[in-house]
Design a protein that fits this description.
The protein is an alpha/beta fold. The chain folds into three domains: about 170 residues, P-loop containing nucleotide triphosphate hydrolases (Rossmann fold); about 80 residues, Helicase, Ruva Protein, domain 3 (Orthogonal Bundle); about 80 residues, no CATH class. The protein has 16 helices and seven strands.
Length: about 350
């Protein structure tokens, strides 16, 4: 039948057509569902499509990310809490399970749940009842649980980081959202729909992509998938100056990560990611300082940030010592692409687009 308009999913490639058929099937069931896929690949839009095609469609679709909150807050958020259950709980809260009553609860990044919460979620799936924090009475809930993960859960189970019994409960049904690099046929249509949305927001005509630009987009590895494509096009549209989107706007993407690297990126834990980002930022800043012969005002201009922001950055990266004062730096050159110098503000621009 194909994706419907309101689902907002672009995907006519063979892998996305196959996914659409599976979405239609799993929507007929009430069993828990696990949606797997790399970061930014569209796990949430797919989960919404399942809900929208299910008998629960008139009831709420409630989404919560397990990566966003510390354990105790997440527990209270999901299961609810009684008044006075913890400091700050001035009122009782029903919790997302009850808010999703009759509908679907989307548990995003389920692998980030602590062992204690994993146990609690398992109990809800087994009994169909939730116990609010600080309360003794269990409450029946009628909710379909759809969980998502960008990790290889069986591997986490082997490593003892995810409960096997919970994995089996959640993964009764599974959907795999393919990475963008495996459905490049969809990229032109995706790009078009994103540019159309951007233009609509700004009340302008959509900017056309040149053939050369499309070539660059098609030869990139897209470790951050559709979300990364959105980010890249948004920023390109901002710097295109109203004309066409030329290849030069995307030069930053020209060195594609290999699929292996892309997978590695997708599997990074937050700590590793932060370390890698800091390392890249450090190299950029040092290169700018070196080119400015150690002159911080000049280096800041080169990076397109204020001198104060540069000082803060140097301190944060532990680079405010002697070596940088002289602008001397033991590392190899990195090139600063033009786009990076002009775009964004503050340390924002130093992020690789891949996240
Ligand atoms: N096939 C698609 N067609 C159109 N837009 C899409 C498609 N897939 C994803 N998107 C868009 O890309 C962005 C990321 O999608 P979504 O949040 O569903 O991905 P995710 O896998 O849950 O990502 P994350 O790992 O960041 O949570 C959203 O803005 C979504 O609307
Ligand atoms: Mg998501």
């Amino acid at each position: 039948m194909g994706w419907s308009r309101e689902e907002g999913i672009v995907g006519e490639s063979p892998v996305m057509r196959a996914l659409e058929e599976r979405v239609q099937r799993v929507a007929q069931s009430d069993l828990p569902l696990l949606v797997r896929g790399e970061t930014g690949s569209g796990k949430e839009v797919v989960a919404r499509a399942v809900h929208g095609r299910s008998r629960r469609r008139a009831q709420p679709f409630v989404s919560e990310s397990c990566a966003a909150l510390p354990e105790t807050l997440l527990e209270a958020e999901l299961f609810g809490h009684e008044q006075g259950a913890f400091t700050g709980a001035t009122r009782a809260a029903e919790g997302l399970f009850r808010r999703a009553s009759g509908g679907t609860l989307f548990v995003d990044e389920v692998a980030d749940m602590s062992p204690a919460l994993q146990a609690k979620l398992l109990r809800v799936l087994q009994t169909g009842e939730v116990r609010p924090v600080g309360g003794s009475a269990a409450v029946r809930v009628d909710v379909r649980v759809v969980a998502s993960t960008r990790h290889d859960l069986p591997r986490l189970v082997e490593a003892g980081r995810f409960r096997q019994d919970l994995y089996f409960r959640l993964a009764v049904l599974e959907l795999e959202v393919p990475p963008l690099r495996e459905r490049l046929e969809d990229l032109p249509a995706l790009a078009h729909s994103i540019l159309l949305a951007v233009a609509r927001e700004r009340g302008e005509e959509p900017l056309p992509l040149t053939e050369g630009a499309l070539d660059v987009l098609l030869s990139y590895g897209w470790p951050g998938n559709v979300r990364e494509l959105e980010n890249v096009l948004r920023s390109a549209a901002l710097f295109a100056g109203g004309g066409r989107l030329e290849a030069s706007l995307f030069r930053i993407l020209s060195r594609s990560p290999s699929p292996a690297e892309a997978e590695e990126d997708a599997g990074l834990c937050y700590q590793e990611l932060r370390e890698q980002l800091a390392e890249r930022e450090r190299r950029y800043v040092l290169a700018a300082l070196r080119r400015a012969d150690g002159n911080k005002a000049k280096a800041a201009r080169r990076l397109g940030i204020t001198r104060y922001a540069l000082y803060r950055t140097l301190r944060r990266l532990g680079l405010d010592g002697e070596a940088t004062r002289a602008g001397v730096e033991p590392e190899t050159e990195v090139s600063l692409p033009r786009e990076r110098r002009r775009t964004g503000s503050g340390s924002e621009r130093l992020k690789p687009v891949a996240v």
